[in-house]
Design goal:
There is one protein chain. The chain is mainly α and 126 residues long. It is built from 4 helices and 2 strands, in the order αααβαβ. It has a single domain, classed as P-loop containing nucleotide triphosphate hydrolases (Rossmann fold, 3-Layer(aba) Sandwich). The protein has a two-stranded parallel ribbon with strand order 1-2. β1, α4 and β2 form a beta-alpha-beta unit.
Length: 126
C-alpha cells in the first residue's frame, strides 16, 4: 500500500487550499475593517490617550508631530496607529520596511522625498 504525502521540502504553496500568505481579496477586506480615526481604535487605551494628547497639541501648534516610537509584537495595531496618526493630522504617510533600507543612502533618499509634516513609518526595524 502506498501513502501519498505532500512534499514538505518545497516552498511552493500555490497548489495548497490553505496558503500561509494573505490573498489580495483578504488584504483589501482587512484594510477596509481597520479603524480610520483614533476614537474608532479599540484597545491600547493608554497609548491611545497619549496619542490623542500628542495629536491635539500638534494641531494647536500647527507643527509637525514629534517622534513617536511604536513597538511590540505583531498584531497590536502599530501600523494601524501610524495610519490613524497621519489621517488625524491630515498629512501623508510614507511607509517602508527596515530590511529595505540596506545602505545609508536609502534612508537619505527617503528623507529627502518627504513633504513637510509627513509621517514616516518604518516597519520591521530591528
Amino acid at each position: 500500500m502506498a501513502i501519498h504525502t505532500d512534499n514538505l521540502d518545497t516552498d511552493d504553496d500555490s497548489d495548497r487550499i490553505v496558503n500561509p500568505g494573505a490573498g489580495q481579496a483578504e488584504a483589501v477586506f482587512e484594510r477596509a475593517l481597520r479603524p480610520k480615526q483614533l476614537d474608532e481604535y479599540v484597545g491600547q487605551s493608554k497609548a491611545r490617550s497619549q496619542l490623542e494628547i500628542f495629536i491635539n497639541a500638534t494641531r494647536k501648534r500647527k507643527e509637525a508631530l514629534d517622534h513617536v516610537l511604536l513597538f511590540g509584537p505583531p498584531g497590536l495595531g502599530k501600523t494601524t496607529l501610524a495610519h490613524i496618526i497621519a489621517r488625524e493630522l491630515g498629512v501623508n504617510l510614507r511607509q517602508t520596511s527596515g530590511p529595505v533600507l540596506d545602505r545609508p543612502g536609502d534612508l537619505a533618499a527617503l528623507l529627502t522625498n518627504l513633504e513637510e509634516n509627513d509621517v514616516l513609518f518604518i516597519d520591521e526595524i530591528h
